[in-house]
Amino acid sequence: MAGGTSTLESVVAEAVFSARGVTKVYDMGEVQVHALRGVDLELFAGEMMVLLGPSGSGKSTILNILGGLDRASGGTVLYRGLDITKARDKELTQYRRRHVGFVFQFYNLIPSLTALENVAAVTEIADNPMKPAEALEMVGLGDRMHHFPSQLSGGQQQRVAIARAIAKRPSVLLCDEPTGALDSETGVIVLEAIDRVNKELRAATAVITHNADIAGMADRVVHMSNGHVTTVEQNEKRRSPKDLHW
Amino acid sequence: MRALDIKLFRDLWHVRGQVIAIACVLGAGIATYVMSAATLDSLLTTQASLYRQYRFPEFFVGLKRAPASVRDRVAALPGVQVVEDRVIAPANIELPSYAMPVSGSIISLPEHAGALNLLHVHAGRLPEPGRDNEAVVSDGFAKAHKLIPDFPLNITINGKKKVFRIVGVVSTPEVIYQLAPGSIVPDFKSYCILWMQREPLEAAYNMTGAFNELVGTLTPGTQVEDVAAAIDAILRPYGGQGVFGRETQISHRYLSEEFKQLGVMATVFPVIFLSVAAFLLNVVVGRLMATQRGQIAILKAFGYSTASVVWHFLKFTAVIAALGLALGIAGGHWLGSGMAQLYKDVYRFPYLEFSLRPGVLLVSALVSIVAAGVGTVVSVMRSAAESPAVAMQPAPPGTYNISLMERLGARWFAQPTRMILRNIERRPMKSLMSIGGVAMSTGILVLGGFWGDAVDYMVFAQLRRAQLEDISVTFVGPVSNRALYSLASLPGVSYVEPTRSVAARLRFEQNSYRTAITGIEPEGRLRRLLNDKLQPVEVPPEGILLTDHLGKMLGVKPGDTLTVELLEGSRAVRQVPVAALVSEYIGVAGYMHRDSLNRVLREGDSLSGAFLQADMSYAPEIYRRLKAMPAVAGTGARAQALESFYETIAKQMLTFAFFNVILASTIAIGVVYNTVRIALSERSRELASLRVLGYTRGEVAYILLGELAVLVFLAIPAGLLFGRWLAGVMAQMSQTELFRVPVVVDPSTYALAALVVAVSTVVSAAAVGRKVSHLDLVEVLKARE
Ligand SMILES: Nc1ncnc2c1ncn2[C@@H]1O[C@H](COP(=O)(O)OP(=O)(O)OP(=O)(O)O)[C@@H](O)[C@H]1O
Ligand SMILES: [Mg+2]
Q1: Which of A130, B41, B185, B520 has a CA-to-CA distance to B221 between 20 and 30 Å?
Q2: Quick check: bond before A70 cis, omega within 30?
């Protein structure tokens, strides 16, 4: 799946994702919820993209579709030239296993495993992972490796989740409100970890947030509203998370 | 160790209470099976080995008297391997410590090496050659009277009383069960079997140089039917009573009927228990897996394939199944060997060969794997099929409705009660499963307890409705009805009813059965024939009445004509119409109008026994007088028969049933605990949120446990009905010649089953209630699985 990219190679920067006319309809019986009403979106190699938009605008939905967690109702999503909307379940599983790192708003750690073991649960099935400890060092948790999720603060748990997402050296890193449950100082630490991974691993990164201030750390900022992409801004300069305040 | 395996063990440890409870449910199911199989196999193996070792004959034939040379003619027949002639004499025994008359049989000792019916000496020794006054006694009798050799005993043979020294206690497969002639239950107290040297016995019984019984074995491949005609032809001139095989030999017949009975219980109980356990395991494991929905989604999100996720959770249940299997096999082995040992004592086997077939273990393992596996795979696949994005979110708020009760007008409930009702209605399948699980375990409790009720009812029907005499008397042979007057004149006797019993073979088409036909009085007060509603059945002047089971075995219905072949007296062969089928729970028999039977026998107004109604405070005197009557061969008392029934037949069934009640309780407790425990883990978030909103611990516990109480309240009556149905199935399946188990469940059995379930609910609820009050609010709300 990671193969045939030649046709897109000519583009200025390689588009890791290219979504065209993506729709998503939740059929609730009596009502149909149109979560996405035709989304066009690119994510380029190595870039940092921030998704902004009001609650219910469809941010999580598009991110889940990009990550192969959910299926679009219509449209195409090309990952390096391959249409993942048509992929079979098995292929999606392989796709997630090889290429995608996820960070969720509510961490979603496995409660019965320690920080290190949570990361190991993913590295064990990856092709070319880092050492779990190394990933935890990257997010500044070298000294908390043997703690259980319930013994960690929210920010620490989120950093374990990031370590877990990056340990497989993913080519895309998808973060759904990684700082949503955190205060600003902890949020900065978490964003620094994401920023660092983006730069060091050159993983194409998409971060969903409600916080417009965070948009400063992005290369590009995508605004969503009511199931559409409304505007896309290109930042002149990427700011370090350290310089962000909210 | 891989991270997921670590997770596996931590998760197992986290829900260890449930793991143990589930393992117990499965273990109890397996244990029932292993126990039953081991007990039965051990008994059958031991029986076979005893028969071989003590050389139990394959055919038997009684006769009046034949010279020793006749034996060789039988021995020369093709198909006959070993023949042994012996003398067997009726006797009366005086046991000073025992009020009732004791009758018995004395058998000549096997004389040659390689003889048949070898004796196992339990205590003392065998009579020595030349010692004319030595005898040994059957161990059943010795045990019943706690007799220890050596001691003197007055024995009357052929009217002559003599003092013998009892020098030993012996057993042999021939007398594992001993029944007095005409009796339907084994009798170890007033019936006795003795052995002595042949010579003095011949002398005492006027049998010098002659014999009156032949036993023998057959060459491999030969059946009794193959040689019966030839042997009968040789013996007919000597009063031969017809060759019969092991299946008609009284001890073997009782034993094999009991084993058959046990075999049915040992099949039906495990099948029911194991299916219930497997079903529950399936449900419980499925629900346990459903609580892992979030974790399944995470693993899927990170690229674990569905197969590897399923495999991971399969390992989880495999541990539970393995634990249950180990518990079941160990427990079953332990109970099985304990029970086999118990039966060894009941049957007084000299030893027991414990046997547990590998196939039993294999089936156990298979059942555990399948039951646990299916539940896991189905449930995990269901979670895994959801898109991870959906599964990972906390389950969306369920769609609730106003509950039926509220719609029906019950609007005064407070919020918590409304929550209970709505929650039950919102997930009817889950509620039904919970109800089903608890109902099933209630049902098997009823099934375990039902045996006691059935036995009591059988006794009630037989000994309080059909057999109403206080004392029964058997004469040495047919006597004239003048004997009735001497019986009626006994002190305390208020009423005497004659009876005539004769051994007969009944044939219908290709079926035949050897039993006794009893001629009874049409207007009998003491011996009545009953229908299945325990209403008296009239005895018609002609025709034969059969117990319904005998009718079924012969394949006859009223109106058919049976061939009746009398095995004594006139030896007449007659066509007799079947007048009716009567209902008897114990034994099988045929009945006729006594006059009609006597006409067939061509014996005028004769009787072979009598039933007495008596004031039992005169019993010692009545017995004393009966002992003195030479025509009286045996005496029975109803109280005695009752006791004997409970001590022998009932005991072996009830022992088995008792073990099963224990296992049923284990299952019930395990199921209830799991139901409660899973309800807690499914709803801990919701409950914690309520606590955050200011609900007290009590209120929150009420919401959880109140729902449970409603479910259990619905499950118990359903379970009692289910148990009643199971009892019917089991009774239907366990019909043997020995008994037909009536489907009777006493209210106390229902009450006990309900109580066990209710108590385990309360105990489980208390345990879970403690967990509710210790709910770590922050942790529960913070952690998204
Ligand atoms: N499983 C679902 N079933 C039905 N509707 C859904 C489901 N998931 C999301 N939706 C709907 O789809 C729309 C988009 O949801 P989505 O989660 O993508 O929003 P979002 O932009 O991430 O919002 P937020 O910022 O609150 O997380 C919403 O209207 C939501 O109600
Ligand atoms: Mg969202």
Answers
A1: B41
A2: no
One domain for residues B524 and B496:
yes
What DSSP string runs through B137-185? Answer: EEHHHHHHTT--SSEEEEEEETTEEEEEEEEEEEE-GGGSS---TT-SS
Does residue B404 belong to any structural domain of this protein? no
Distance between CA B645 and CA B254 in Å, rounded?
13
Q: Residue B290: what pLDDT?
A: 74
pLDDT band at A7 (very low <50, low <70, confident <90, very high): very low
**Closest ligand 1 atom number to CA of residue A57:** 21
Separation of alpha carbons B546 and B467, rounded Å = 16
Using a CB-CB cut-off of 8 Å, the residues of chain A touching B390 are: 70
CA-B389 nearest atom, ligand 1: 1
Residue of B673 and A19 predicted with greater confidence: A19
Residues of A in contact with B782 (CB under 8 A): 150, 154
A105 Cα: distance to centroid of ligand 2 (angstroms): 8
Q: Is the CB of A57 under 6 A from ligand 1?
A: yes
Cβ pair B7:A113 closer than 8 A: yes
d(CA B616, CA B584): 26
CA–CA distance, B369 with B367 (Å, rounded to integer): 6
Q: Is any Cβ of chain B less than 8 angstroms from the Cβ of A26?
A: no
Of B154, B243, B239, the C-alpha closest to B194 is B154
The answer to whether position B538 is within a domain reads: yes
Instruction: Return the structure tokens found at A67.
Output: 């990550």
- Three-class secondary structure assignment of B444-468: HHHHHHHHHHHHHHHHHHHHHHHEC
Distance of alpha carbon B644 from alpha carbon B650, whole angstroms: 9
Q: Report the predicted TM-score, pTM, of the whole model to 2 decimal places.
A: 0.73
Shared domain check, B750 and B620: no
Q: How far is the CA of A72 from the centre of ligand 1 (A)?
A: 13
Comparing B28 with B778, which gets the higher pLDDT? B28
B451, B552: one domain: no
Out of A24, A59, A71, A211, mutate this one to test ligand 1's pocket (max ligand atoms within 8 Å of CB): namely A59
Whether the predicted pLDDT of A3 surpasses 70: no
Q: Is the minimum distance from the CB of A68 to ligand 1 under 6 angstroms?
A: no
Q: What is the pLDDT of residue B167?
A: 94
Over range A40-58, report the average pLDDT.
92
> How many whole angstroms separate alpha carbon B719 and alpha carbon A109?
42
Strand order from edge to edge, sheet including A15-27: A32-44, A15-27, A74-79, A82-83
Q: Which ligand is nearest to the CA of B391?
A: 1
Q: Which domain holds residue B785?
A: 427-465+641-785
Q: Please, which pLDDT band fits residue B299 given cuts at 50, 70 and 90? A: confident
pLDDT digits (tens, 9 = 90+) for B89-138: 988 888 888 877 888 899 998 877 668 888 999 899 999 888 888 999 99
The secondary element (H helix, E strand) that includes residue A104 is none
Q: Which of A67, A70, A124 faces B3 most closely, judged by CB atoms? A: A124
* Complex-level ipTM: 0.72
Domain of residue A221 covers 45-69+99-243
pLDDT at B784 over 60: no
Per the structure, the count of domains in chain A is: 1
- Determine the 3-state secondary structure of B11 from DSSP: helix
Q: How many domains does chain B have?
A: 3
Find residue B743's DSSP bridge partners: none
Q: Is residue A74 part of a domain?
A: no
Cα–chain-centroid distance for residue B52? Answer: 26
Residues from chain B contacting residue A89 (CB–CB below 8 Å) = 306
Q: What span, in angstroms and rounded, lies between the C-alpha atoms of B351 and B348?
A: 8
SS3 content of chain A, % helix, strand, coil (to 5): 35, 25, 35
CB B225, CB B40: distance < 8 Å: no
Does residue B709 belong to any structural domain of this protein?
yes
